[in-house]
TrEMBL record:
Belongs to the PPR family. P subfamily. One of its GO terms (molecular function) is mRNA binding. One of its GO terms (cellular component) is mitochondrion. PPR repeats lie at residues 254-288. Keywords: Repeat. It comes from the Eukaryota. The keyword Phosphoprotein does not apply. This is Pentacotripeptide-repeat region of PRORP domain-containing protein. It holds the Pfam family PPR_3.
Length: 407
């Protein structure tokens, strides 16, 4: 576009280009491009993607410097840059600075929008308490430039929930329900989650049924939300009903949905139901992910079916390159103790490499494996080398075990 004769880049074009530079080449080149912009109109358009990038990276210093420069140029005329700053302060636990941003908006006669008020209410709830948040809400009600919708009422309800004011939270959520859209399920998801925080199953199910009246296909994310909430309240019968409803209508078997019910079964000691569900998901074309194997590993360890647990852990490990999952220390210790008790050297050797390569090593794990090798009169050079590389310090018991290999 820039190389075409007679073509002139608009301010919006510059903003789009700056955003693309951030994604492709990083902030440094984007900052240089911003400095070279030809006029204030272009800078006004491009400042928001640059500021948003600082917010995403939690770079408060650069964001504040940019806001200062924009203010000097008289470019702070909309609420969007101020909202970005408030989001940054909330994300960096500096909620007390949000009212200062609001004060600056008022000084510059910048109107507040719905997001401005929502962030302000949340910040006041965190810093000053319920009464302060309510004052902001009243100010919003009296502001003719904005309209109170479900998102603001949801924000206020969250303040009440954190303060354990159940009756007030419930009343506000009921009012929020009246303002939900007939075209979008997003608000339903938020309110369902908040009813779960109040342990209000009736509210969850009422909103869930109401959400079905919204046009369009109900997504897996919607089902995951309501399933998680019902499971949180301990109602597995209702969870099973909702799951079957999803299963009967799903086009592609999303394993994330079944994982929620699978985890509930395992946490409640229902390993037979968990195994049955797992087999059913495979039959329906579900593809287990690392979470599936993590849940099954935990379930089989609890039920002392260690062969299945080890197999599940192996399968989960294959996926570790693509996720951050790390098995718990209790699971790893249970397996180490199993190897020690049964002298399973083939799996134990794999296990040693596994815990070492992924930085999961601990002194109790290595001690168990040392005892196993000592009992079988097998050398433990590999274990000792891994302990050294993992910088595991020996205690007296470990030192005694090591000396026993030389005896």
């Amino acid at each position: 576009m820039e190389t075409q004769n007679g073509f002139r880049m608009s301010p919006v074009d510059h903003a789009v280009k700056l955003e693309s530079i951030i994604r492709l080449h990083g902030l440094r080149e984007a900052e240089e491009y911003f400095k070279r912009l030809p006029n204030t109109a272009s800078r006004k358009a491009a400042c928001l993607p640059l500021l948003h990038a600082y917010v995403e990276r939690r770079d408060t210093e650069k964001a504040e410097v940019l806001m200062y420069k924009l203010n000097e140029l008289g470019l702070l005329v909309t609420p969007h840059p101020f909202n970005e700053m408030m989001k940054l302060y909330m994300a960096t636990s500096r909620c007390e600075k949000v009212p200062l941003v609001i004060h600056e908006m008022k000084q510059n006669n910048v109107p507040r929008n719905v997001l401005s008020y929502n962030i302000w209410i949340s910040a006041c709830g965190e810093v000053s308490g319920v009464a302060s948040a309510e004052m902001v809400y009243k100010e919003m009600v009296n502001d003719k430039n904005v309209q109170v919708g479900w998102s603001t009422l949801s924000t206020l309800a969250n303040v009440y929930i954190k303060a354990r004011l159940v009756d007030k939270a419930t009343l506000v959520l009921r009012n929020a329900e009246k303002k939900l859209s007939n075209c979008n399920r997003l608000g339903y998801v938020f309110l369902i989650t908040q009813y779960a925080s109040l342990s209000d199953k009736e509210g969850i199910l009422r909103l869930w049924e109401a959400s079905k009246e919204v046009g369009g296909r109900i997504t897996c994310v919607n089902y995951m939300c309501v399933l998680s909430c019902v499971v949180k309240l301990g109602d597995l019968v209702e969870a099973e009903r909702i799951f079957l409803e999803w299963e009967s209508s799903c086009r592609n078997y999303d394993i994330r949905v079944s994982n929620i019910l699978l985890g509930a079964y395992v946490r409640n000691g229902m390993i037979d139901e968990a195994e049955s569900l797992h087999l059913r998901t495979l039959e329906r074309g579900g593809c287990p992910n690392y979470k599936t194997w993590e849940i099954l590993t935990e379930g089989w360890v609890k039920s002392q079916n260690m062969d299945k647990a080890i197999s599940a852990l192996r399968k989960g490990c294959v996926m570790l390159k693509h996720c951050d999952w790390r098995p718990s220390h209790d699971i790893l210790m249970a397996m180490a103790e199993y190897f020690e008790k049964h002298g399973n050297f083939e799996d134990a050797n794999w296990f040693i490499r596994f815990i070492h390569q992924r930085g999961l090593a601990s002194l109790p794990l290595f001690k168990s494996l040392l005892r196993m090798h000592l009992s079988a009169k097998r050398p433990a050079f590999d274990i000792l080398e891994m302990m050294e590389k993992s910088k595991i310090e020996m205690d007296d018991e470990t030192s005694a075990l090591v000396q026993a290999f030389d005896a």
